[in-house]
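Researcher: I've been going back and forth with a colleague about how Copper transport protein might be arranged in three dimensions. Neither of us has a model we trust, so I'd like an independent prediction. The organism is Colocasia esculenta, in case that matters for your notes. Sequence below.
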Amino acid sequence: MMHMAFYWGRKVTLLFDWWRTKSWIGYTVTVVAVFLVAAFYQYMEARRLRFKALTLLEPATVLGPTPVTSMEAPLLGFSAARRAATARVAAAVLFGINSAIGYILMLAVMSYNSGVFAAVVVGQAIGYLVFRSGGEEHVMAVGKPCACS
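Model: Here is an independent structure prediction for Copper transport protein. You can compare it with whatever you and your colleague have in mind.
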C-alpha cells in the first residue's frame, strides 16, 4: 500500500521495489544514506557554482593563457574556442548530475515517510552549512541585474 500522507514508521519502500525496510536497522541505514545524498547534492551544487563562477568571471584562469592560436601551432594544444566548449560541456555534465540527484531526493520525499523527509531537509541544511555558506554566492549575484535568474 502506498501512503498518501506523511507517516512515521520503519517500513518504507524507497525509489525501488527492492529497497524496502522492515527493521529499525535497515530503516536507520536508509535514513543515513538519504542524509548523505542530500549533503552530497549541496557539495555538487557548490562545485558547479564555483566552476561556473570561474568560467564566467575569470576565463583566463580556467582556460589558461593562449599566446599562440591553433592556426599558428595546431599541434601544441587546444584553441581558446575548443577550451571554452570543453568548459561548457563540463558545466553541463555537472548540471545534469546535480539535476539527477535532486530528482532522486524529490522521489525519496514522495515516499511520504517523515524520517526520510527529515533526512533530506537536514542533509540539505547541513550540506549547505558545510559546503555553500562560504559567501561564494555573492560573487555570482554581483553580475546579474535580475534576482530571478
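Researcher: What would you highlight for our discussion?
Model: I'd start with this: The first strand starts at residue 12 and ends at 13. After that, consider the following. Strands lie at 12-13, 20-21.
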